[in-house]
Specification:
The chain is α/β, with parallel strands linked by helices. It has two domains: about 90 residues, no CATH class; about 210 residues, 2-enoyl-CoA Hydratase, Chain A, domain 1 (Alpha-Beta Complex). It is built from 13 helices and 13 strands. Strands 5-6-7-8-10-13 form a six-stranded mixed sheet, covered by helices on one side. It has a four-stranded parallel sheet with strand order 1-2-3-4. Strands 9-11-12 form a three-stranded mixed sheet. Strand 5 and strand 6 form a beta hairpin. The radius of gyration is 21 Å and the shape is globular. The N and C termini lie far apart (about 75 Å). About 45% of the residues are buried.
Length: about 325
């Protein structure tokens, strides 16, 4: 008779298949407000989506849901508006993305529920735990094996420049040839620059970037190179540019343009003033990779637009233009 240690080991995917089975619940629970039924509740690790096809924006307890979609053109928080002609497509896209990355999607939804009431430092800590957990998961590993980074020569060019214009300190991302892809070197240089300014007085600070894009997100060449999840968590907690920005408070203004992907909006969202050019657009791609926003986005973005819209952006892989970002409060002003 085989002992417990002799039993075949089960993969994370097969275990999740049990959790997502009809007997326990789907990774996505859908509630249509046009139906005369009570909300489904969270279920077991499910992303709970409420849909208002009629565009009446019903008076509900939003705490029961992770994402709320309506056809109403100008709903307030926590709703996200989708045009009636695009509603079914948007819903199908959301369902497909949750089915493709159920663990990452449900972990992001659960984290957003918890972290919205946490003190900001504790919320960053919770994000670091969640992100580091997913680094060792099968969803991210499968994505990484299918998207192996290109071999590149070591890039030692400076990532950040600090100058002064009158009474304002200017912090500039300088990796324009890589669309300011956010790698460990840029993270460390930005932390060093911001900490230096934090310790040197109360000078106002403007954060901006060279090149056609403010930041095209994390440098994919580095994704997954840290194989020790515990060490990844420890490193993250000592190098969070977004947390330093938040601690700098009213001193900081950020100027955005072009692509602001992943870290390219997660970090700026910690600032009290964000000005974006008309060509600016935003995307949170991490869930599609089997991860969750890990540069502060689960903390900074919900504090601007709410957790429901943050979940929709991250899980739905929704691209946001400057106009919609302004409507939602993700940015404060659009410049020419």
């Amino acid at each position: 008779m085989a002992s417990g240690n002799d039993r075949p080991r089960r993969s994370a995917v097969s275990l999740w298949a049990d959790l997502a089975s009809p007997a326990i619940g789907s990774p996505m629970v859908l509630h249509d407000f046009s139906a005369d039924t009570a909300p489904a509740g969270y279920g077991h690790g499910a992303v709970v989506v409420g849909v208002d096809r009629a565009g009446v924006v019903p008076d509900i307890d939003s705490g029961d849901f992770d994402i709320l979609l309506t056809t109403a053109p100008l709903p307030g928080r926590p709703w996200a508006s989708v045009a009636p002609s695009e509603f079914d497509t948007a819903l199908a896209n959301l369902a497909a993305r949750i089915a493709a990355r159920p663990i990452a999607a449900s972990l992001l939804a659960a984290l957003l529920r918890v972290s919205e009431t946490l003190p900001i430092a504790a919320a960053f800590q919770a994000e670091a735990m969640g992100y580091s957990t997913l680094l060792g998961g099968s969803e991210f590993q499968n994505w990484r094996h299918a998207s192996l980074p290109k071999s590149r020569s070591k890039d030692t060019a400076p990532r950040v420049r600090v100058t002064q214009s009158g009474s304002v300190a200017i912090v500039t991302l300088t990796r324009a040839d890589r669309r300011n892809a956010f790698d460990a070197a840029m993270r460390d240089a930005l932390c060093e620059a911001l900490r230096g300014l934090a310790e040197s007085g109360n000078m106002p600070i403007t954060l901006r970037a060279e090149g056609p894009d403010f930041c095209a997100g994390g440098d994919l060449d580095e994704f997954g190179t840290q194989t020790d999840s515990a060490l990844a968590y420890a490193v993250r907690m000592t190098r969070y540019p977004a947390l330093i920005l938040a601690e700098l408070g009213e001193r900081v203004r950020v100027e955005l343009h072009g692509a602001c992907i992943g870290a390219g909006i997660e970090i700026p969202a910690a600032a009290p003033e964000i000005v974006a050019r008309t060509d600016t657009w935003f995307l949170l791609p991490e869930v599609s990779m089997g991860l969750l926003p890990g540069a502060g986005g689960t903390v900074t973005i919900p504090r601007r637009i709410g957790r429901h819209r943050t979940a929709y952006l991250g899980i739905g892989h929704v691209r946001l233009d400057a106009g919609k970002a302004l409507d939602w409060g993700l940015i404060d002003r659009i410049s020419t």
